Amino acid sequence: MTLEELCARRVALWGMGTEGLAMVRLLRDRHVDPWLVDDRPEAAASRLGDQSDGARPVTGPAEVPWSEIDVVVRAPGVSRYRPE
Hints:
Number of strands: 4
Oligomer: single chain
Strand content: 15-25%
Radius of gyration: 12 Å
Helix content: 25-40%
Order of helices and strands: HEHEHEE
Structural class: alpha/beta
Largest sheet: 4 strands, parallel
Strand order of the largest sheet: 3-2-1-4
Distance between the termini: 21 Å
Number of helices: 3
């Protein structure tokens, strides 16, 4: 999948570490407002800092409407074997 194709989908970014924060910047620069997902949403929101202005809040995995998401971009530390 190309970046252009990704930007045309409903995206969830899971994991707000270094890689996730870089992806947030990349997508927001392209006017995409992804779902932001982290197992510790409060800590992740503080790492986002001013990148979170006017965007969706960081949520835990249980709050994401998974059936409405087309693509999940997960950080390397998020296991692909999770039930979500």
